[in-house]
Amino acid sequence: TDDIDDGEVMFINDDADIIINNGTIKGGFSNSEGGGLYIEGAKVTLNNVNITDNTVEDDYGAGIAAYGGTTLIINGGSISDNLVAQDDVDSFYGGAIYIEDSTAVLTGVTIKGNAYTHLKLYWLQGAAIYSENSSITMTDCVVRENGLAEYDGVAYGNVRSIIYANDSQVVIKNTDFIDNGH
Fold first, then answer.
1. H or E stretch at 159
2. C-beta neighbour count of 35 within 10 angstroms
């Protein structure tokens, strides 16, 4: 709910090695990074996991936020309908995934319907993925309908990029980008 600080569904750090097979990570609300998953310095493997309907307010990575040497491996499943809700800041990063100083390998993942809301005209960097000083490999993925949400039936703001990479290496193979942005 709006009353929870750091209300991510899962917080994983300090050299943890986690494997999650099947299931759903849903309903997180955080006013810090990572509405669904916050990962720092750990190895996390998600096999056929759906990360959906998570919100981060005034920060980054509504579905997943990964930092500090994290290795994130996602096989199948989806990251969908996660929301970056911003009020008073002018930076919007990573609707589905925000990754910094880490590595991500996505295979057969659907990234769909991740968005942000804001009542001012600001830009969203990385509606699907925002990468800072990281390595990302995407194979056989679908990136669809990520971008701007509406507020009372009116679209606000602009999407600058679906995937944004700064000082990062990104390899994309056999991946479809469909109906993204506003």
1. strand 158-159
2. 33
